[in-house]
Each structure stands twice: as C-alpha cells, then as structure tokens.
C-alpha cells in the first residue's frame, strides 16, 4: 500500500479517502504491467478505502480476505 502513503504525503491536508481510487483508475491501472488478479486486489482495496476509510480497510484480516478473493482459490463458507 505504498501508493496510499504517497498520496497522503503528496496531498497533505487536501487528501481525501477517494483520492487513491481516482488516481488508480485514471492513471495507473491500465499503465502498469501486473497480473489482472493483483490489479483486482488493488482496485478492491482502494474501493474499500474510498467507502470505509483506511482504518477499517487496512487490517490483516480484511487484506487477507480480499487477497484470497482475488489471488487464491481459497473459498470460505
């Protein structure tokens, strides 16, 4: 989530929780070479940050849930 940190530092007091999702979808997502599963993971994390904020999104359990959803074949019932 290094991009998240850069956005907060760069934007300073003007930072808003939607900034990373807007930047990711408009400038980065199609430009970078990455596996589509990783792009899906990053997109969902930024969507959750935009909706729920950093504290609710960036937790070990939540990031593992999103990672498993996009990057593994693990399904939990």
Strand residue percentage: under 5%
Measured distance between first and last alpha carbons = 28 Å
Q: Return residue spans where pLDDT drops below 50 for at least 5 consecutive residues.
A: none
Fraction in helix: 55-70%
H/E element string?
A: HHHHH
Rg of Cα set: 13 Å
Descriptive account of the structure:
The model has no long low-confidence stretch (mean pLDDT 90). The longest helix is centred in the middle third of the chain and has 17 residues. Helix 2 packs antiparallel against helix 3. With 77 residues, the chain is an all-alpha fold. The chain has one domain. It is flat and about 40 Å long.
Sum up the structure in keywords:
77 residues; 5 helices; mainly alpha
Write the layout of secondary structure elements.
Layout: H1 2-11, H2 19-28, H3 36-52, H4 54-57, H5 60-71
Summarize this entry quickly:
With 77 residues, this protein is mainly alpha-helical. The chain has helices spanning 2-11, 19-28, 36-52, 54-57, 60-71.
């Amino acid at each position: 989530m290094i991009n998240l940190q850069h956005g907060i530092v760069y934007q300073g007091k003007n930072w808003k929780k939607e900034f990373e999702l807007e930047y990711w979808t408009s400038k980065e997502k199609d430009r970078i070479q990455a596996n589509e599963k990783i792009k899906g993971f990053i997109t969902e994390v930024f969507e959750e940050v935009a909706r729920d904020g950093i504290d609710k999104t960036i937790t070990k359990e939540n990031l593992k849930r999103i990672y498993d959803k996009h990057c593994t074949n693990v399904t939990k019932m």
